[in-house]
Amino acid sequence: MADREAVLTAIRDERLKRQSTLRRLMAMPELGAIAGAILVFLFFGVTAGGTGMFAADGVLNWVTVAGQLTIIATGAALLMIGGEFDLSVGSMIGFAGMMIAIPTVYFGVPIELSVLFAFVGALAIGFLNGLIVVRTRLPSFIVTLASLYILRGMTIALSILFANRTIVSGVRNFADGTWVQALFAGKAFSGLFVWLAETGVIATLPNGDPAVKGIPAVVLWAAGLALIGHVVLSRTRLGNWIFASGGDANAARNVGVPVGRVKIGLFMTTAFCATVYATCQVMEFGSAAADRGLLKEFEAIIAAVIGGCLLTGGYGSVVGAVFGALIFGVVQMGILFTGAPNDWFLVFLGLMLLTAVLFNNVVRRRVTGER
Amino acid sequence: MSAAIASTPDAAVRPEPGRPLIEVRDLVKHFGPVVALAGVSLTVRAGEVLCLLGDNGAGKSTLIKTLSGVHKPTSGDFLVEGRPVAFSTPRDALDAGIATVFQDLAMIPLMSITRNFFMGREPIRRVGPLSFMDMGFADRVAREEMKRIGIDIRDPRQAVGTLSGGERQCVAIARAVYFGAKVLILDEPTSALGVAQTSMVLKYVSQVRHRGLGVIFITHNVRHAYAVGNAFTVLNRGKTLGTYRKSEITIDALQNLMAGDKELQSLSDDLDGMV
Ligand SMILES: Nc1ncnc2c1ncn2[C@@H]1O[C@H](COP(=O)(O)OP(=O)(O)OP(=O)(O)O)[C@@H](O)[C@H]1O
Ligand SMILES: [Mg+2]
To answer: What pTM, to 2 d.p., does this model score?
Structure first.
């Protein structure tokens, strides 16, 4: 009798163990995005294999697009896990660009200072967004929707006021040769790529330069920010506080998590990420424009959602958001490479988003044991 | 296991039994026009269990939320070990050694058992200038502490949402016991528990008491209260009806006091003593 019970317990234990491994795998928020990325690669590997999409310069193309998006998606994912949205990311990109270009071109401010000014300004605006959300307990959706309009409007109005135009070019004259340009628009490992071209691993241009001159700074920024975001979220006290603040702000407060400070910090993070994005763009193009970053807030949120972040907060991962951004880049560029009409990209994006949300919903039920 | 206990903050501090840990005098708490507490006084002593009894809405949860830093008192004195305190956050209360199991548990379903267990009190491992959450240690402690309360969790990283209500309550209790250095507050900890877990919790409470901590134990069940309590405070409509040592009151008298005007007693007679 006792033996039988021991055996039964052993059997039950084993079943539970198996279930919990499966559950642990299912509970990985990034699972869907990784699977999606594999599918997308397979699809374009077949349909666009011969178009140069997977040659060095083709790869550079979609990696750059994915990298740009990764920068803002990292901030968006962290904020979403913390239980809030920031719809002002796109406007912030435009505004930050102007905070760099106008002082540099029209007021003779050294470009290093202009960049510093843009970062400080953006962090202050992020702080304000966060403060309003935390103090009023209004939905961040509404508060940052207001910021979206205010910032975009101010970008246009102030650039007309100070520069009498909405596109400020000529930044390059002030940026060339400075360390800020190297930091935000340089190419890393160029020696390596020259060598790769010489040994024939990658193609060369007619003038003898390698087809890819190096890894763009924007990609390194993306990798760096995503890595930091991932480590902070999964391995630190702050990460635990972010999950807790988004999961249930009240419960978190009751056990001593400084929810307000966490959320304000996250709004500042999204503003910081938007400014990195903007600075890279200004340094790359040598100009700022008042309409830069339009709709980027949605792309960032889409990448985060594809990456497994729940819209209700408290759940998600930075790794997932990176894969979300990668899917985005590969599909956007892949459609160009295959020559399909670009409109299909939007259709695909919408379907992708819908699938991701449905999938996440199932995962959430699994994880929380809801039926 | 004892190593895990020894590593809790302030474990070395062992106040001698009977010494007042928390003293509250004429505590008043208003929520706008609502008077939740209208002058409550009580004393929590080291090595004693103070049971807080009273009907729904009597103000029990409000009282302990004030003690644990969630609410600020409107007026009144609040002393911890003889020193007046004014907690502005629950963190301050935890730092002062007061840990609470809230009635709504303060658990986050989407987060793992480990992450919930250490929420707000994450163990830190330093690597040069960086500090990381020590997940290995956290997992181990969470599993050990759950085992002590009689629940064998196989995966401390599984989401709390997958646990049953009683299991969740046990996580909350284990967490508070682990972090409650001086005073442990339990707001209806047995309301969702089965027989085995209830007696485990009651045993736990008396264990904690013998370790020299002060305990505030809120319950609607007079028998549970009488089993572990040293003193009983009955609240009614935000006021104390009185505090009694165990030697001063019988279980029936306590039951009657709780029921107010003997209504329950007559009901009990009607139902042949079933209540
Ligand atoms: N945040 C709040 N705002 C307004 N009123 C409140 C608030 N919290 C509690 N109250 C009121 O204070 C009174 C006491 O509530 P409390 O939760 O302390 O009762 P309780 O004794 O814990 O009851 P129960 O046994 O049902 O848990 C109730 O009338 C309640 O409505
Ligand atoms: Mg209550």
So the answer is: 0.87
